Every structure is written in structure tokens, then in C-alpha cells.
Amino acid sequence: MDEEYDVIVLGTGLKECILSGLLSVDGLKVLHMDKNDYYGGESSSLNLIQLWKRFRGEEQPPENLGASREYNVDMIPKFMMANGTLVRVLIHTDVTKYLNFKAVDGSFVYNKGKIHKVPATDVEALKSPLMGLFEKRRARKFFVFVQDFDETDPKTHHGMDLDTLTARELISKYELEDDTIEFIGHALALHFSDEYLDKPAVTFVKRMKLYAESLARFQSGSPYLYPMYGLGELPQAFARLSAVYGGTYMLSKPDCKVEYDDGVAIGVTSEGETAKCKKVVCDPSYLPDKVEKVGKVARAVIIMSHPIPDTQESHSTQVIIPQKQLGRKSDMYLFCCSYYHNVAPQGKYIAFVLTEAETDDPEAELKPGVDLLGPVDEIFYETYDRYQPTNDCDSDHCYISMSYDPSTHFESTVEDVLAMYTKITGKVLDLSVDLSAASAGEQ
């Protein structure tokens, strides 16, 4: 390997694949390596035999579950916001031509022991059983303010500066009740915890707008999209993109070791050969001495023969359980998809319960979420640690992604990717795209 690359990317997780695609399109020479013999790293999709191998050792799955190949079980299950950043990246790079999406049926929130549809517009707010009559009027006023808000048009700001006003102060002007604030903050603005309340209101309002605009896009009952055959399709689509622009791929490369000269990354050695490069991009598992543990995700992976109860028979859905409903510090998420998205055989549903772990007992911790699912065919529990980089990438030329959080949408994932892209290239990715370009095949 005498060639020198601009960037060597280690690991084919979704973040790394998006970056190798974007950097290849920019004309950089990219070599992409993975110690595994499959794409996707932590964010891969497994068939039934792979799932059993991962959680149960060598045991063969029971025959009554159907054919192994009909399963595509995501290890990091997430939906895409229809107007969100990931969709913009897909359109910007034209990766949409490699993928097919379907809208997700339902978006729900758990309140006082019941599952409710998330109201996202002034019209839905008036119908929602989550609020009493007077509260509905107040909420409607707030929704109208959010829908009309335009950052570039001061007339829509009602004399408020949302860059200095906190979310808490903005909400208090509309005198909303705690229960309403909870579902708006957690099920619409999709914040994990209540920390957002003391930060500038502009981010909170933009996140609500994103939800409402995504919902309006396909009129499907949720703001989310999900690829046919599962999320394992996404890393492969970006890998294809990178290859089209000259990126080189090497799977099954064990012991990828980053080489340094005076503390600066200059190449990667695997199987006795060294490829030279100017920069290294990787997930935390490749450079464990440059990351720190920041948390732990607990999750249950479930196979069942029915949709999640009380979600209007939705084939695919998200239910958010805000932290306060369970007396926790962070939200819990239920995620479900099915044969409708080609991730399981006819009549089978794949569900997940995920949360930021607060104990060492995932089974007990996830019980409130699992109890909402009704009878299950199979259930697997696991936890994984979350890491973030501690190095100074400007001095060592190592760009490390953050581990995936437990949220069931991609906004935080893509924020990390775009921040890394800017650090690597010094440029900001222009995502002002024509969103209608992604409508084909989504129905």
C-alpha cells in the first residue's frame, strides 16, 4: 500500500459511512476499513441467526419465527424525521436513489398510564384527550406562534428575542400546564431530559417546527420515515456513494492500528501493511485511549406477533415515555416496525425498549416499557457503554464519533456527523436542498 490517502475511515457504522460518502464527494481520497466482515458496525441490521448468535451464543432460533433471512433487526433502531437533517444529507448526496422509504404510522406519548397520539398542530391539539378544554386553547395559541415563527421575520417574534429568552420563560408566557409542557418538550421537540428548559428558546421552537413540518410532509400520522429492509441499508448506500467517487473499501481487516509521528496520525497498519494518510476518522472502539465513557444505554430487543397495544394497530410506531412519568432522569422509548417495512416475516413485529441506563439491571429498568407491549415471542436484554472523544483532533488528526444515544430518531446522530465534517474539512455542509426530491417510493 504505497498510496497516501487524505482520510482513512475505520469502522462502517452509519456515521463513518456518511462521512466517507461526503468526503469522497468533496474529492478527497478515502480508504475505508472495518475489522468486521459486514457493513454497519454498531448500527448494523441482523438476520435471525445473527441475532441468536449475538445474544444466545450458537443456539438456533425456533422455527416458528419464520425464515432467518426475512429478519433485519436494527441494533441501533432509529426513525428519520421526514424534514430532518439526515433526509437533507441523503438528498444532498443523491443517496436516495439507492434506498426506498415508507412513512411510519404512528407517534405516541405515554401519560398517566395510557398511550396517546401526539398532537402536533393546533387542529390536533383541540382534539387531544391529553388536555382539558381551557388548556387546549392555551396550547393552540402556543402552536400557532410556533407554526408562524420565522427566524428571519421579526414580526413573527411577538417582541421576544428567542436567542436570550429561555424555553421555560417562553412557555410561561402561554401559561401551559406541566403535563402539556412535558409532551411538547419530549414528544414534539424530542428533548431527552428537561435541561432544554433553561437553554435559549430558539432551539426548542425550531425542533417543534421540524416535527410539525415533517408531519405535514406525508400526512401519515407521524413525522418519521424508515427505510425498507431496515437501517443496515443506510451505511451500505453511503458506502456505494463513496465507491462511486473513488473511495476504497476493505472489510475483515483485523487489528487496525493507527500509526503516529510525533503524536500526529500518519497511517493505519493491518496485517503487516501500512496505508499512509493525513487524517483518521473512526468510531470509539478503534481508539479506546482517546475516549471517555459518558453513559450507558439499556435496551430490550423483542419479537412479537402483534403491534404495540393502544397504538391504533400501527405497523410502525414510536412511543415516548417522558422521564417524569416513571420518576427517571431520562426518557424511555418504545420503537416498533414489522413486515410492513420488510424487517420481519408477515405477521411478526420487531420492538425495542431503550433508555439511558440509570442502574445495572436492564430487565428491571426497562420493565415499565416492556409491560406496555403485551405478550412477546422472544426478548433479549443488553446494555452498551456510550463514549465521547477526549482528544484534540486539530493536533493529532484523529476524528472520533460519539456513541449512539438511546433516542429513536436521527437528529443527534447527524449533528455529530456534521460537526465532524466541519472539523475535518473546515467547511460547513450546505443542506439547503429541495426536499421534494425525496418523495419517490415513500408511499
Structural commentary:
- 29% of the residues lie in helices and 24% in strands.
- The mean pLDDT is 92.
- The N and C termini lie far apart (46 Å).
- α1 (14-25) links the parallel β1 and β2.
- α1 (14-25) runs parallel beside α9, α1 packs across α12 and α6 (167-173) crosses α8.
- It is globular and about 70 Å long.
- The strands form four sheets. Strands 1, 2, 10, 11, 12, 13 and 19 form a seven-stranded mixed beta sheet that branches. It has a seven-stranded mixed beta sheet with strand order 8-7-15-16-17-14-18, with helices on both faces.
- With 443 residues, the chain is α/β, with parallel strands linked by helices.
User: What is the terminal separation in angstroms?
Assistant: 46 Å
Cα gyration radius (Å): 22 Å
Report the count of strand segments.
19
How much β-strand is present in the residues?
15-25%
Q: Which quaternary structure do these chains form? A: single chain
Helix content: 25-40%
- The total of helices stands at 12
Overall pLDDT level: 92
What class would the helix/strand composition place it in? Answer: alpha/beta
Low-confidence stretches: none
Molecular shape: globular
Major beta sheet, specifics? 7 strands, mixed
Essential attributes:
443 residues, alpha/beta, seven-stranded mixed β-sheet, 19 strands, 29% helix
Summarize the structure.
Helices cover 29% and strands 24% of the residues. The radius of gyration is 22 Å and the shape is globular. Helix 1 (14-25) packs parallel to helix 9, helix 1 packs across helix 12 and helix 6 (167-173) packs across helix 8 (201-218).
